Amino acid sequence: MMQPLRIRLALYAQLTRLDRPIGTLLLLWPTLAALWIAAAGRPRALHVAIFVIGTFLTRSAGCAINDVADRHFDRQVKRTAGRVVATGALRPREAIAVAVVLALAAALLLIPLNALTFALALVGVLVAVAYPLFKRFFPMPQAALAVAFSFGIPMAFAAVREQVPAIGWWLFAANLFWVVAYDTEYAMVDRDDDLKIGVRSSAILFARADVAAVMLCYGAYLALMLPVGVRIDAHWPFYLGWTMAAGIAVYHYTLIRGRERESCLRAFRHNQWLGAAVFGGIVLDYAMR
Could you tell me the pTM of the whole model? Predict the structure, then answer.
């Protein structure tokens, strides 16, 4: 018997994490930061709308694909056992259909943009789709996620400048370290379950060096962002945002050093503020010129 529409929609909302926007924000902040830098602080409203909506759609589609690929693993992990595909509340083919619809909607947003942006988007989608497979054989799948979660950066430059200059790839490289930092915190939550079921993660790879590795990744990200400030001739707002981000990273150390599940999860979720601090500094810097 077919479930009422409101129940189906509620299941779709859970599938696409509408109740958990943290993933969208982690993807959005560096993308918007790149857009602001690419446009010298004056991005077109159309570009802002495309990247905001596109980020939401692609992240939601990625969640659906990930849940289908990981449904057998999710049932064995405490944090993910209640996901709608893992419990059977949604069939895999239905979740895939949702992902396809969302991906097509995101593709339509690319119509006003140039061919390079479209090509980069295609590569980003392929990496995102392949990401769940990396958990099965690659010792640090967080690196694959970092690539997928950073592709909005070169896309933003391509959309504005019709090319990706060196600073765009520099920002891309910096963001890789930030993603590995926060996704390792996320992996620390599931480490015990992942060890039992044979899923690989950076938290398992780093073992007792996990906290040090996270902080080194934060440090690399922050260090790589300093030349960005020099390159864009930044003033005090940029460095204020950078300093706030550094303070937030130190706060995360206080959360993860005990390796407790809930504290590591809090640190992961709190990264939205680190990204917001960097983006806010960039926006304010350009606004005051």
Answer: 0.94
Question: Cβ of 142: how many Cβ atoms within 10 Å?
Answer: 27
pLDDT tens-digit readout, 14-60 = 999 988 899 999 999 999 999 999 999 999 999 999 999 999 999 99
With contact defined as beta carbons under 8 Å apart, do 117 and 159 qualify?
A: yes
The pair of three-digit structure tokens given for residue 275, joined into one six-digit string: 């990204």
% of residues, the chain, pLDDT over 70: 99
Note whether 73 and 186 are within 8 A (CB).
no
For the record, the structure tokens of 156 come out as 């933003």
The secondary structure of 106-150, three-state, reads HHHHCCCCCHHHHHHHHHHHHHHHHHHHHHHHCCCCHHHHHHHHH
**Contact (CB, 8 A) for 162 and 116:** yes
Q: Identity (one letter) of the amino acid at 112?
A: P
- Reduce the DSSP state of residue 151 to 3 states and report it: coil
